Every structure is written in structure tokens, then in C-alpha cells.
């Protein structure tokens, strides 16, 4: 193909006292020679403890060898029978294949069965083989300490190599400095590179794309009418030139009261049989974290983990962490990391254990 195909369409444009989250899974190949026609995709669904699920959209991108009228499938979502019919909202005929998008409202199912793992089971009964390129959950949470406006596109923006596509995204502005971009990119060539600019500012660039690339960017400058530019290049000569597909695109303006957990001091206390780490942490942010952990890490391996009570803004706390004698000789390789969550977001801060005082 030699020209851009833009079938991205607005699914939802809304404002919520809360936030919007994107969780993806895939890919999955079904049917064909020596391959099962039944498969399963899993989503890690961790509902924020201080939020209420308002909406949940299941989005499935599937490439088939035949046109949709010849495709048969069955879907189960969290063991709930979803459909027997294949009726995509978007179908694009490409060279020797069809790219399809199917969307479902699964809010009632998640309300009825809240689990930490959500499973999508698929039985493909069509001719030949099919590939589920990706499946997404677009989740809208209501929460007191956040407000978000978002515009959600689904479909396909198919860009041949060494070409650029531009499109406009309308958005209600909550905070012009707190724009967020969430997208799914599908690359057929391992030599594909892509960049995304919003209002003339490059916000994403990656030289080697995977088959399924989930893109999450924060702190973008946004305005009521945003111009998005996507550029696709293949950097190796004499290779098969395959297009890039932006399958899902969300632009949001989100204001959230964020916690920030800071490690203020660390001491090693050697009294008694085993030494201990005395760590002072403080919340210098504007809200309480939903969950909070303190990790001791040795060259990338977690050797000690402590779940902590959540700190209020401005609060400090002294934490005692076991510190085995044999770790003292590796002190220069160790680090302490605080990890905390707020709604669907995970934050962390890490400090190396060098020049630590001992008493």
C-alpha cells in the first residue's frame, strides 16, 4: 500500500470526576495448520480501592484472511458468554487480509464479577487463521481526587513507511499542562520506527517497535483543538516495507492530586544480633497514596519487601527494615525503593545505599 488510511473515529468524548485507564493484552493467533482455534487473553485488573468503576469498554482488534461475513467466533468475558456473532464496527481490506475492530460494553460484567485477573476467551470458527492483534480494556473510574476530560478514538490509522499522517483531537481542557496520551501501535516490521507529536511538540519516539506497542505519555501541553502528527519510518534498506497501524488513541486532560513518597534519611543500626535499616520517609505530595511499599533491592532482585500504612500529605514516618549481615559487604550494590499507587497509576522513587551512616 502506498497511501495513508485513516479510519479512526471518536467513540467517546466526555468529562469525569476521576480518570480513564487503558489496559492491553495480546497478540493471539488462532486457527490454521497445527494451531488451536481456542485461546485466552488475560488482563491485570487492579481496581483502585478509593474509586468506582463507571464504564468499561472491551475493544478487540482482529485480522482475518476472509471478509467478516465468513467469520464465525464465540467470546466469553470473565466466563460470561458475550457473543456468537462477528459484527465489527470497523473493517479495512488490506492486501490479502481484513483488519477488524469490535467493541463491547462490559461494565455490567465487571460490576458483577470483580476479580484481579480478567480473562477473555475466544473460539474462532472461521476459515483459515486469524490473529487477535490486541484486546483493550478502556476503564473510566470515578474518584474524588481527580478530574479528567478525554477523547477516545478507535479504528485504524494505517501509515505506510516513510509517510506522515495528521489528525485533529478536540478536548475539553481541565489543565493545559497535564495532557496524557494513551495509544496502541501495531508494527509488522521489526525495523519500523515511529514518532508522535502533539501541537508541534514531539512527545513520543521509538526506533524499534514491537508487534504490539502500548504507549502511555504524561505531562503533555494540550488545548481545545489539538493537532496530532504520527510519522512512520523504516530505517533498513532492502527490507519488506509494511505499514504501521495506530489502532487505539486516547488524548486526555487530567488533574489529579498526586502523593509523593520521599526517602529523607537512611541509617544502619548494628545493635543486637542482626543490623537493621532505619528509614525516614515523608509524603511531600497532595494526597494519600492508595497503597505503599518499601523495597530493598540487590542488583535488581527484591530481597525485602514491606507494605506500609499510607501517609497523609506532610506526614513523616520512621520505618525499620531487617538488614542481614551478609548484605553489608554488598552495600554499594543495594538500593531502597518506595512504590506507591494512586488510582490506576504506579509511582516509585529509588535511593542507592552509598555513604550511609552507621550507629
Write the layout of secondary structure elements.
Elements: E1 5-6, E2 9-16, E3 18-25, E4 28-31, E5 38-44, E6 52-64, E7 73-77, E8 80-83, E9 90-94, E10 97-105, H1 107-112, E11 117-124, E12 129-142, E13 146-159, E14 163-170, E15 179-187, E16 192-198, E17 201-206, E18 212-220, E19 225-234, E20 244-256, E21 261-269, E22 276-283, E23 291-298, E24 301-307, E25 316-322, E26 334-342, E27 345-352, E28 357-358
Parallel strand pairs: 21-28
Antiparallel strand pairs: 1-13, 2-13, 3-12, 4-12, 5-11, 6-10, 6-12, 7-8, 7-11, 9-10, 13-20, 14-19, 15-18, 15-20, 16-17, 16-19, 21-22, 22-25, 23-24, 23-26, 26-27
Description:
With 359 residues, the protein is mostly beta strands. The protein has one helix at 107-112; strands at residues 5-6, 9-16, 18-25, 28-31, 38-44, 52-64, 73-77, 80-83, 90-94, 97-105, 117-124, 129-142, 146-159, 163-170, 179-187, 192-198, 201-206, 212-220, 225-234, 244-256, 261-269, 276-283, 291-298, 301-307, 316-322, 334-342, 345-352, 357-358. The strands form 6 sheets. Strands 1, 2, 13, 15, 18 and 20 form a 6-stranded antiparallel sheet that branches. Strands 3, 4, 6, 9, 10 and 12 form a 6-stranded antiparallel sheet that branches. A 4-stranded antiparallel sheet has the order 5-11-7-8, with no helix packed on it.
Amino acid at each position: 500500500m502506498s497511501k495513508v488510511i485513516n479510519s479512526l473515529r471518536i467513540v467517546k468524548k466526555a468529562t469525569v470526576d476521576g480518570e480513564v485507564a487503558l489496559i492491553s493484552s495480546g497478540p493471539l493467533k488462532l486457527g490454521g495448520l497445527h494451531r488451536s482455534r481456542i485461546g485466552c487473553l488475560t488482563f491485570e485488573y487492579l481496581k483502585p480501592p478509593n474509586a468506582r468503576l463507571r464504564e468499561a469498554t472491551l475493544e478487540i482488534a482482529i485480522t482475518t484472511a476472509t471478509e467478516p461475513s465468513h467469520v464465525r467466533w464465540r467470546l466469553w468475558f470473565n466466563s460470561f458468554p458475550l457473543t456468537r456473532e462477528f459484527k465489527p464496527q470497523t473493517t479495512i481490506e488490506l492486501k490479502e487480509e481484513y483488519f477488524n475492530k469490535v467493541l463491547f460494553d462490559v461494565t455490567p460484567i465487571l460490576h458483577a464479577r470483580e476479580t484481579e485477573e480478567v480473562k477473555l476467551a475466544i473460539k474462532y470458527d472461521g476459515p483459515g487463521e486469524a490473529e487477535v492483534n490486541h484486546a483493550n480494556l478502556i476503564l473510566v473510574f470515578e474518584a474524588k481526587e481527580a478530574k479528567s476530560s478525554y477523547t477516545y478514538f478507535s479504528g485504524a490509522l494505517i501509515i505506510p513507511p516513510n509517510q506522515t499522517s495528521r489528525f485533529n483531537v478536540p478536548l475539553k481542557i481541565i489543565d493545559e499542562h497535564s495532557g496524557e496520551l494513551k495509544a496502541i501501535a501495531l508494527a509488522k516490521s521489526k525495523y519500523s520506527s515511529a514518532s508522535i507529536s502533539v501541537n508541534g511538540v514531539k512527545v513520543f519516539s521509538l526506533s524499534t517497535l514491537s508487534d504490539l506497542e502500548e504507549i502511555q505519555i504524561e505531562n503533555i501541553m494540550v488545548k481545545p483543538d489539538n493537532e496530532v502528527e504520527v510519522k512512520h519510518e523504516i530505517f533498513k534498506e532492502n527490507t519488506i516495507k509494511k505499514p504501521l497501524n495506530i489502532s487505539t488513541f486516547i488524548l486526555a486532560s487530567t488533574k489529579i492530586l498526586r502523593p509523593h513518597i520521599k526517602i529523607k534519611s537512611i541509617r544502619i543500626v548494628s545493635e543486637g544480633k542482626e543490623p537493621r535499616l532505619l528509614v525516614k520517609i515523608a509524603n511531600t505530595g497532595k494526597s494519600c497514596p492508595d497503597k505503599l511499599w518499601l523495597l530493598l533491592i540487590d542488583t535488581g532482585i527484591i530481597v525485602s519487601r514491606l507494605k506500609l500504612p499510607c501517609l497523609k500529605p506532610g506526614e513523616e514516618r520512621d520505618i525499620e527494615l531487617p538488614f542481614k549481615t551478609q548484605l553489608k559487604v554488598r552495600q554499594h550494590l543495594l538500593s531502597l525503593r518506595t512504590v506507591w499507587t494512586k488510582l490506576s497509576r504506579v509511582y516509585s522513587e529509588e535511593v542507592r545505599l552509598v555513604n550511609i551512616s552507621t550507629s
